[in-house]
């Protein structure tokens, strides 16, 4: 991805170098499904995620150790995240304006080890996630090394950009009211039905990541050879079926909360090819 020398966002908080204690929450991020699979056989109900994100542990205290200086590598990572966030700000501001809407910019918080959020305390094990309570994306960038070593993704800078865009997609869903509507739809549903709605929400975030890629390429000409393959490899690695097969040796489709590898790749590419936010009704197509 061609990112150096371009505009960087001011909406990135870098808290790396600070240790924190506290309870881990299972967030709405890509790797959240892994924690659920480790703790509850067959996955977790999507109904549990939103209340946890919005209500748990807002009063918990965090203990931070002495802060160290960031390394040269960390500073470069920070610059990359700032650039990708700036691209997201530019694209989503344009899309919202085209639909007579106002886009409220979120923040990205980089952390290592643990972090306190508007949704409670979290550890790196939560993976990247979006907190609707404070409208921030939280990321420990060591996640991307695990994505390669543990789950077989090819890695690369655009794999990171895809994950960021996916989490920003959850922010878009919050602004549009989709997330709140989905939670209402989950009420009174069986576990399998509620999980299906959670899958639709996650696949729509993948679709929005594809829409962002379409617009960003058209506006800024950022893609390089292999970038789309990096995103698709990451999407494949975090499919529910791929994760379950690796962790527990078998697949339980009714427990899926994020979608299969093929679904995740399909919706990302649909967003990328169409560039049309109105073609992302994953809820209708998964009925």
Characterise this structure:
The chain is of the alpha/beta class. Helices cover 51% and strands 8% of the residues. A four-stranded mixed beta sheet has the order 1-2-6-5, covered by helices on one side. It has a two-stranded antiparallel ribbon with strand order 3-4. Strand 3 (114-117) and strand 4 (120-123) form a beta hairpin. Helix 5 (157-176) packs across helix 8 (227-237) and helix 6 runs antiparallel to helix 7 (191-220). It is globular and about 50 Å long. The chain starts with 11 loop residues before the first strand and ends with a helix.
Question: Secondary-structure element order, as H and E?
Answer: EHHHEEEEEHHHHHHHH
Structural class: alpha/beta
The end-to-end span amounts to 36 Å
What are the segments in which pLDDT stays under 50 over at least 5 consecutive residues? 20-64
What's the arrangement of secondary structure elements?
Blueprint: E1 12-14, H1 32-39, H2 49-55, H3 72-98, E2 107-110, E3 114-117, E4 120-123, E5 129-131, E6 136-139, H4 143-149, H5 157-176, H6 178-186, H7 191-220, H8 227-237, H9 240-247, H10 261-274, H11 282-285
Parallel strand pairs: 1-2, 2-6
Antiparallel strand pairs: 3-4, 5-6
Helix pairs in contact: 1-9, 3-5, 3-7, 5-7, 5-8, 6-7, 7-10, 8-10
Summarize the structure.
Keywords: Membrane, Transmembrane, Transmembrane helix. Helices cover 51% and strands 8% of the residues.
